[in-house]
């Protein structure tokens, strides 16, 4: 392969093609016409001497060579980004984009703490926030985001991830002020007869505290409401007898806008996800933009 045939734009298109496995979707994501993407794919096939994407009955599939290339692309593009950002970094003039993923309860707290300072110190930067429901660490490992804010812990690649603790949280029971248990001393037995809302952002099949109930002999906890995100929790709770088990700061925020009440769960129902951390991959550990962002978080959360 003649490397002179390859430019950075082609690598960016290739990365998106291998992720989307779809020419039209790649064109839409990158804001480039479909014919241009098709021409780029044809050129890439010549450069790599491989079809890269093979049309199957259900769409395109990656060739083995494309799979191998994909694993290296994120590292290559990250190194290019690092090379560019190393040059005379100044947050006041920098126009970089920082991508952060986290679910709304955690993200709301972080944004509230840093957004004023972020806009003041880096007026030309973009903070790209993703709160869509999905596996917590998938985009971080792929190199699609710079940071993840979560109370979960990674199950893979821990040796390649860094983290700093941000804040503590406690999970509480959120219910309507008119709920029949709103002013009653809560026990596991009473709660086992109630109806719960399940928030399944990673495809979870059961209520987060169901194992706690089961350990005490209470099976088949009623979950008539299942959500894939944190939207509509306030409305559902206000107008029904459904209870949600959510982080305390999120519950406090909802209680300010809806006639709801948050109650501490009995000790035997408490789950251990108290520490929320900021995670980043080693590929961005020395990136000056990301180093600055970490220092901004540290200053706003711990030095104010």
TrEMBL record:
<dbReference type="Pfam" id="PF00126">
    <property type="entry name" value="HTH_1"/>
</dbReference>
<dbReference type="InterPro" id="IPR005119">
    <property type="entry name" value="LysR_subst-bd"/>
</dbReference>
<keyword id="KW-0804">Transcription</keyword>
<dbReference type="Pfam" id="PF03466">
    <property type="entry name" value="LysR_substrate"/>
</dbReference>
<dbReference type="InterPro" id="IPR000847">
    <property type="entry name" value="LysR_HTH_N"/>
</dbReference>
<dbReference type="InterPro" id="IPR036388">
    <property type="entry name" value="WH-like_DNA-bd_sf"/>
</dbReference>
<protein>
    <submittedName>
        <fullName>LysR family transcriptional regulator</fullName>
    </submittedName>
</protein>
<feature type="domain" description="HTH lysR-type">
    <location>
        <begin position="6"/>
        <end position="63"/>
    </location>
</feature>
<dbReference type="InterPro" id="IPR050389">
    <property type="entry name" value="LysR-type_TF"/>
</dbReference>
<keyword id="KW-0238">DNA-binding</keyword>
<dbReference type="InterPro" id="IPR037402">
    <property type="entry name" value="YidZ_PBP2"/>
</dbReference>
<comment type="similarity">
    <text>Belongs to the LysR transcriptional regulatory family.</text>
</comment>
<dbReference type="InterPro" id="IPR036390">
    <property type="entry name" value="WH_DNA-bd_sf"/>
</dbReference>
<keyword id="KW-0805">Transcription regulation</keyword>
């Amino acid at each position: 392969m003649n490397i002179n045939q390859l430019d950075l734009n082609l690598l960016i298109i290739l990365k998106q093609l291998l992720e989307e496995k779809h020419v039209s979707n790649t064109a839409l994501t990158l804001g480039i016409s479909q014919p241009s993407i098709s021409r780029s794919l044809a050129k890439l096939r010549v450069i790599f001497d491989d079809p890269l994407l093979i049309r199957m009955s259900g769409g395109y599939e990656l060739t083995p060579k494309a799979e191998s290339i994909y694993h290296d692309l994120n590292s290559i593009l990250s190194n290019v980004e690092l090379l560019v950002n190393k040059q005379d970094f100044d947050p006041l003039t920098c126009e970089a984009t920082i991508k952060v993923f986290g679910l709304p309860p955690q993200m709301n707290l972080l944004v509230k703490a840093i957004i004023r300072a972020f806009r003041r110190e880096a007026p030309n930067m973009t903070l790209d926030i993703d709160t869509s429901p999905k596996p917590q660490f998938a985009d971080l490992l792929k190199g699609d985001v710079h940071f993840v804010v979560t109370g979960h812990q990674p199950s893979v690649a821990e040796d390649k991830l860094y983290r700093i603790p941000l804040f503590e949280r406690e999970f509480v029971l959120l219910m309507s002020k008119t709920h029949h248990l709103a002013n009653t001393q809560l026990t596991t037995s009473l709660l086992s007869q109630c109806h719960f809302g399940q928030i399944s952002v990673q495809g979870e099949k059961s209520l987060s505290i169901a194992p706690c109930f089961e350990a005490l002999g209470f099976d088949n906890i009623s979950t008539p409401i299942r959500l894939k995100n944190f939207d509509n929790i306030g409305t559902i709770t206000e107008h029904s007898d459904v209870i949600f088990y959510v982080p305390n700061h999120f519950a406090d925020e909802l209680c300010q806008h809806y006639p709801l009440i948050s109650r501490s769960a009995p000790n035997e129902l408490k789950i251990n996800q108290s520490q929320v951390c900021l995670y980043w991959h080693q590929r961005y550990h020395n990136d000056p933009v990301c180093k600055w962002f970490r220092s901004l978080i540290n200053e706003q959360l711990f030095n104010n």
